[in-house]
Design brief:
This protein is an all-alpha fold. It has 21 helices and no strands. It is globular, with a radius of gyration of 22 Å. Bound molecules: magnesium ion (MG).
Length: 382
């Protein structure tokens, strides 16, 4: 069945019919491919639903119009699929990796991750890519015959994306690619770049809506300015919000078309014919052209300086540090504060001196509002 669905894919695309497989053997799906099955398991997972209430840049309760991790994830999946289809690589696999790429994020975005990493410093640390893999491999607990989602090797390898050597050595065969310095699949490379396209552009929109950055400031950013000039030439009387929308729409289109044509060029230049060629290539294949790479970098730097480091956004960061570190400390002092069912499920790990990891998994799984409620519950009674 998989062969019929995947017969139009390019020779360098990964195929369900050639999958390395799943950890626990299962009968092949009848009317869909293995990678489709992965995608569907991810959408039906608990961790996926929780993305709705996790911070991207703005905390969920700051307003209904801002991106959350869930809407960000859907935008990444949409852009990735468009690129995958144009490159004739596996759309289902690309979508599965995209939909799970942020599952491991803590509440309160990067600030939450950094402080949880700090709390876990002496116990193996915390890193969201590794956590995404832990979720799909171990932490989801819904199927009768295995823990985790039992996804295909290729999906899991794409989810891991990257990690340092010391951590890779502990992870097992899924991290061999990193230890052997091999490239990731084209499907994973596409997801990675499309994540960047999605957040750079939606953060412009959200940042302007929140009045943390302004149109006038963005004129310093060449890629924005160029597209805004074209927009205004065509529509001189456009309202401010439509200028932003149209300019961002044009930037996304520019980035996506550049990514597709430059990657096609790389495929030809590097003689890429099989997934093995992709893996063994000494460079990444899915990349922007030099000019666009530079321009995209300038935009990224602008957002770092003006949005992510903005005092109001940093205030949220400080709050996250306080909530996450205090929750960690409270559970560490009294593990019985964790729900009974969760403790029962993790009893073996707790007895095996992995108490801190059990706590870290619990906190990482929290949504922003659940973390805030827990914090209030634990600290307002004292
Ligand atoms: Mg992301």
């Amino acid at each position: 069945m998989s062969e019929a669905f995947e017969k139009n894919l390019a020779s360098y695309s990964l195929k369900s019919s050639n999958t390395i497989g799943r950890k626990y053997k299962e009968n092949p799906p009848k009317r869909r491919t293995e990678f489709q099955r992965d995608r569907e398991r991810i959408i039906h997972s608990t961790a996926f639903r929780r993305l709705e209430y996790k911070t991207q840049v703005f905390v969920n309760h700051e307003g209904d119009m801002y991106r959350t991790r869930l809407t960000h994830t859907i935008e990444v999946a949409q852009i990735s699929r468009a690129v995958a289809r144009a490159l004739k690589i596996n759309e289902d696999l690309t979508e599965a990796i995209s939909l799970s790429h942020d599952l491991g994020h803590t509440p309160f975005g990067h600030a939450g991750q950094d402080i949880l990493n700090e709390c876990m410093k002496s116990f193996g640390g915390f890193e969201h890519n590794i956590q995404s893999l832990r979720i799909v491999d171990k932490l989801e607990n819904v199927y009768p015959n295995f823990s985790g989602l039992n996804l295909c090797f290729e999906t899991r390898e794409g989810i891991l994306k990257k990690c340092n050597k010391a951590r890779a050595e502990k992870i097992g065969d899924i991290a061999n690619r990193i230890l052997n310095k091999e490239q990731s699949s084209l499907e994973a490379q596409v997801t990675n770049l499309c994540d960047e396209i999605a957040y750079n552009n939606h953060d412009i929109q959200d940042g302007i809506r929140a009045k943390k950055i302004f149109l006038e400031q963005l004129e310093e950013v060449p890629i924005f300015k160029d597209q805004m000039v074209i927009t205004l030439e065509q529509y001189p009387k456009l309202s401010k919000s439509k200028i932003v929308n149209e300019t961002v729409r044009r930037i996304i289109n520019l980035l996506v078309t550049d990514l597709i044509s430059n990657s096609e060029k790389n495929i030809l230049e590097q003689n890429i014919e099989t997934p093995m060629d992709v893996k063994n290539c000494d460079r990444q294949i899915v990349e922007f052209s030099e000019k666009i790479k530079k321009e995209s970098m300038t935009l990224k730097r602008f957002l770092h300086k003006n949005l992510y480091q903005h005092p109001d956004v940093k205030m949220m960061t400080d709050k996250a540090v306080n909530v996450v570190s205090n929750l960690f400390e409270a559970y560490l002092n009294d593990i019985n504060l964790l729900p009974k069912e969760y403790l029962k499920y993790n009893l073996e790990k707790i007895n095996n001196k992995s108490k801190e990891r059990v706590i870290s998994d619990y906190i990482a799984g929290m949504t922003d509002r659940f973390a805030l409620e827990e914090y209030k519950k634990l600290y307002s009674d004292n």
